[in-house]
Amino acid sequence: MNSVKGKTGVLLVNLGTPDSPSVSHVRSYLSQFLNDPRVIDIPWLARKMLVNLIIVPFRAPKSAKIYKQLWTEDGSPLIFHSNKVKELLQHELGSEYGVHLAMRYKNPSIPDVLTEMQKENYKKIVVLPMFPQYASASTGSAIQEVMDVIRKWWVIPEVRFISQYYDHPKFIDAIIDRASKYNLKDYDHILFSYHGLPVRQVDKVYDNGLCEDRDCEETVTDENQYCYKATCFATTRILAERLGIEEKDYTVCFQSRLDKNWLEPFSDKVVEEKAKEGAKKLLVFSPAFTADCLETIIEIGDEYQEIFEENGGEKVQLVESLNDHPLWVECLKEIVLG
């Protein structure tokens, strides 16, 4: 009896970026991003008023100026690097796979890319968000959007979702290799800076109690395995052990907060404190970001540098994101092949 082998579709999903650094495109991007109920998880009417009447109108012009600093001849670094990874992964996987790239917010959009994939009539689809640590606001949102589209298809193929892979050996190896160009002993302190989240979002992981009631800074268990705070600390422990960094010499911190009720310590405050304590050189890893973007290039590379200098420090050195690192591509390949 003959069996149809069929091709496998791979959908890489990254966060997204404005179509250009113009105020109108930035406004459209922020509106879509911040109106996502998994990003700002408050009641619908309160979210609409907060986002559309307060945050977006005031933030869009300021953010547009920052995006202009970020933009290159190739456009958004996040789009450029993600497209390069898509091409390299396609080459590694070969003709039995079709690799596609979508952004959770703006373009190329998940609905548009899935429409293209539907036409390919794949036997199986692997959905692989490019976020190593699970968070409802990133991985969860991307997976929900994919499910919302695919559930309307008449023919639904086998679909496999990848929720997280922060401890994948090749992911860790790629970061270690990125760090190899820096002599760790040259730095007074090392920061592992992750994107922040509201505390209430990690609390929602648990049926009973709060995140702070658990030992998320020290261990990953069956209960907290999808707690973003727990997996960020776990990522850091793995990297610190591999790099030979003692606990006293590094700090886990969280950046890009919207208000004070977010995961602490705040990265910008740690940078300020270390400068006031006399540190002259900081090395900063950003293991939640797999492609360099506004949060790494501008927030860490420029804004934290300015804060550090204002308080007596000299140099904040960013360890570049994985971008199109060969080991990162190998990591994705191994995840797809399962």
From TrEMBL:
In its UniProt record, a GO molecular function of this protein is:
metal ion binding
Q: Which InterPro entries does this one have?
A: Ferrochelatase, Ferrochelatase_C, Ferrochelatase_N
Which top class of enzyme applies to this chain?
lyase
Query: Where is the protein found, in the record's own terms?
Result: Cytoplasm
Give the SUPFAM superfamilies listed for this entry: Chelatase
Which Enzyme Commission number(s) are listed?
A: 4.98.1.1
Catalytic activity entry: Fe-coproporphyrin III + 2 H(+) = coproporphyrin III + Fe(2+); heme b + 2 H(+) = protoporphyrin IX + Fe(2+)
Q: Which residues cross the membrane?
A: none
- Highest rank taxon of the organism: Bacteria
Which UniProt keywords are present, listed alphabetically? Cytoplasm, Heme biosynthesis, Iron, Lyase, Metal-binding, Porphyrin biosynthesis
PANTHER family referenced in this protein's UniProt entry, alphabetically = FERROCHELATASE (PTHR11108), FERROCHELATASE, MITOCHONDRIAL (PTHR11108:SF1)
The entry assigns this protein to a family as follows: Belongs to the ferrochelatase family.
Role, per record: Catalyzes the ferrous insertion into protoporphyrin IX.
| Protein name as annotated | Ferrochelatase
Species, as recorded: Fulvivirga sediminis
